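In response to a reviewer's request, we include the raw inputs and outputs for one of the modeled complexes. The two entities were modeled together in a single run.
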Amino acid sequence: MSDARETDRAATGASGLAAGLTGAAHLAKPLLSFGFILAIWVGVTAAGLVPDQIFPSPLSVWQATMEMATNGTLATDLAVSLRRAATGFAIGTTLGIALGLLTGRVALVRTLLNPFLTLLRPIPAIALVPVAIVWFGIGEGSKYFVISYTVFLTVWFNTHHGMEYIPDIYLRASRSLGASRMREFVQVVIPAAAPHIFAGIRLGVALAFLSLVAAELSGASSGLGYRLQEARQYIRTDRMFTLLIILGALGAVVDLVVHWLGKKLVHWQQG
Amino acid sequence: MSQGHVRVDDISIRFKGKQGPVTALAPTTLHLAPGSFTALIGPSGCGKSTLMNAIAGFVRPASGAITLDGREITGPSADVGVIFQQYALFPWFTALGNVTFGLKRLGLPKAELHERAMAALAEVGLAQHARKYPQELSGGMKQRVAIARTFAFGPKVMMMDEPFGALDAQTRVVMHDLLIDIWQKHRATVLFVTHDVDEALLLADRICVMSQAPGRIIRDYRLDLPRPRSLRAQAEVLLPIREEIISLLHPSHSKP
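The model returned the following structure tokens for the whole complex.
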């Protein structure tokens, strides 16, 4: 058994190339899927069944993309939206982890806050927008609030859940090895909860994008969500498609990065 | 050096059950002499692990007292080391990191800390695997790391809860020799919980047999035999005891 594992380890260096090839194979499937959908899209629009203004062809979407790219709105909107999502995400994640560690560790805080926070969880981000606008105006403040609030609840919930799930045997081992409570917290409790915390962060990233659009759809003068709203006023479905594709691709890329980072940082996680 | 005199005086342990409290351990008295190796054997669910958990400080007795060198045990501490059946290694640390975790308490300078952790791993034959994570090690190697981690900082008492129960027979034989070697060097007081009669006969100076739940100690054997032992070479002494213990554990299967 142990011999087999050692051989496995020795082989990892040589298998780098093979891993690269499987990576390419992994990429092949999504590309096939995109190609398939694109072909149907081209077919439907070329058949002329639906007016281009209602359901634009890939070519029209491409032209709209180029137009938005050259007049500069695309880069500005992207930057504004990314800054909002990132800021909201950073605030929400920091607060979520901090409070999750606290409610997981301190019984009094748990008793005082958990029922209330659990009640807040089902409220959708978009329902907060009116309140946020009254409290923070239509500037950046209300966007940060809606995004960070949504991210916070999810990250808090996962962190707290991870703290509850820590196997008792780790705490027993730590205490019988004479670790102080502080060292137990930093070197045992946090790493033991880390897989759940990371799952929460990954969900938080997705929610940051969801609530970003919710926040920008009402009361914004820039950003991808605002631009979607503006495109509706001019019935520019080609622009809408561009923006939707960008939102999808952006979310997917960020999710991949977070997932990859999580695997690196929480390398001991099974499966 | 340190002592390691454990006195368990008339303790009983109860847990909350669905229909009121359940007695896990009937009033039990057990004294462990400093540096002795005692095996605790009994049918499953008899409370042998509960007794061990009480000495480790994980469970408080409902009555009676447990003292170590005259001081009452009120919770887990570095004086009582514990080896778990499931190893309880921290998967986020390497083998070396796990051993170092136990040594940090001593407040050594960094170089000495590293040196002592490496020495502890070398003692269990894992020096070349120091940088591996537990997930990369076999069951036997994991338990070696756990043994190194616990013996490294020199606890006075060592609780071992069926430590080799999850290992295959061959690995187990190797681990027995390793454990006896290390124990003879460190001379901690050992309480070794097992359900394997042969394991108890091969390792211990003393074997305490527990009854069915609610458990209490019903027989206490002293074995004054040289090590390494073998059931064949020391058959005269060991086999009759073996028969007796087996008939105590399985009264219905006892031969006339």
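As requested, we also summarize the result in words. Chain B has a mean pLDDT of 92. The longest helix of chain B spans residues 169-186.
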